[in-house]
Predict the 3D structure of the following.
Amino acid sequence: MSEITKVALDAMGGDNAPKAIIQGALDVITKRQDIHVFLVGKEKIIEEELNKHEYPKEQISIVNATEIIETAEPPVMAIRRKKDSSIVVAMNMVKTGQADAFVSAGSSGAILVGGQVLVGRIKGVERPPLAPLIPTKNGVSLLIDCGANVDARPSHLVQFAKMGSIYMKNVIGIDNPKVAIVNIGAEEEKGNALVKETFPLLKACEDINFIGSIEAREIPHGEADVIVCEAFVGNVILKLFEGVGSTLISQIKNGLMTNVRSKIGALLVKPTLKETLKKFDASEYGGAPLLGLNGLVVKTHGNSTAKEVANSIIQCVTFKEQRINDKIKETIQKKVE
Amino acid sequence: MSEITKVALDAMGGDNAPKAIIQGALDVITKRQDIHVFLVGKEKIIEEELNKHEYPKEQISIVNATEIIETAEPPVMAIRRKKDSSIVVAMNMVKTGQADAFVSAGSSGAILVGGQVLVGRIKGVERPPLAPLIPTKNGVSLLIDCGANVDARPSHLVQFAKMGSIYMKNVIGIDNPKVAIVNIGAEEEKGNALVKETFPLLKACEDINFIGSIEAREIPHGEADVIVCEAFVGNVILKLFEGVGSTLISQIKNGLMTNVRSKIGALLVKPTLKETLKKFDASEYGGAPLLGLNGLVVKTHGNSTAKEVANSIIQCVTFKEQRINDKIKETIQKKVE
């Protein structure tokens, strides 16, 4: 039998907590025996929710945490002051090795700060990037970095490329993943100071399959598997991706309701439309990992459903099984030593 | 009778040149007598194309230019060497006052460089931003800057906000346009170094209606009329907007063709779908102006249709009638003196 993966799950984080979060945990443990989930949060609330369900009791533990970090709170302060919050308690479990991974739909800021401050970076990793998957024509691409650490240096971006490649190869299963840097033109001499400095470093890097620049227009086509950028640009790409997609879809749906003819048409196209839009939903791959930490931290969407939570837990198993952190250590420390 | 607006049109630029470009010019002059178009490019080719049409001859002149700047050419070199290219010849016409404006679907790089080097900046303008309109739920927003000058300073962004406000008010007709800066969170303390430095300057600026930060997710909702950012980020937003939209639409269209039921549905929804997607096309407002120059330079899409060219020419008339450059001078020089 394979080893047990221990996942600390933030039962209090996200718009649909605790119901959808706990549901996600139960969905996954009823299918897989190699997972133990620690539900971290207010004991009574979690118990009450658990009591509504039948489930394999030996795969779930409750870890009491009396405080909650709200999304609007300044992250650094929140992490420092709310020692008994679900995020801080769960992060400490990863730090001490009680849990292999932490999954949360809670405050992005607190998760990013806590990851660095509490869980800590792998030796040699300069910055832990947040790396969500975005849907493309061909499947998904890893957008790295979308975190809170803006104004990156070229050496950070090179590490992002390496860590992203390891993740895409071993967790998503893409052989020899193609790496590109976000730029405003295809030519090597284009770009801002950061991109111009980083480009030759990526080109010279032996650990990755660098294919050059990618313009934002090409990102949805899926020609690169690992899309490297600094966090400000990454954040803009990630959020615009979601914003344009959802706006366009809602406009189309509203448009279809304007007359009888199109309403009938809408009924007929609904199943295939749903199928198409499902392809544009990356949540079946889980949440966004914060890479380069001594453990795994996964940030899921604030509005995560049980499905996204369940997939994020499975992602933690793959991450552990594939020894991603050992592979990151090997690659990053090779150059440091 | 109102004054004549003289527009130099690059007959050689863009994927559909010269046919669609010339068609656009003819479409507009047959409707409006207050416009004179100089078709700049290879005389014989233009003449041949013109001979296929009936049109008011007194509103069109051909200006011979024997060279063409290709999209792939390094812009600075091209502008310097190809003195008899359509872009250089037309830009010089704007500089000397023979034309009020220049419209081109040709090389973005050459147009941006030529605008600065040949047409020249209004005194006090630090950088001329390229400011395309992007479609939103509510209409359009001006995205400023999407040009070639990356790594901007805070003072540049403040000028972009002022020039963008003047344009949206007087050309697009939006009263007291709302200005926002692209950021990765709504709070004032968020952002990269550039945004953090620029935010208080925009807040203190009396000439604009600053509403704070805008996250990329909110851009398609149209809550800001003028969206300020430096050119690298602007370029990413513009191209991703187009990329996500077109990918999603093509996926939906392909999806609808997968079975008989959805094919029938597709026939029924086609008219309203077309109507909805039309709203997501900003080309009815013309092309992207390069603001802050001694004259007007408008960059249209490389694949511009006759309609986009015609609308860009009308945009030049409004720009002149509304004395946009006088208004930019007043606002920018007020602080300089």
About this structure: The mean pLDDT of chain B is 92. The CA atoms of residues 30 and 56 of chain B lie 7 Å apart. Chain B touches chain A through 60 residues (CB under 8 Å).
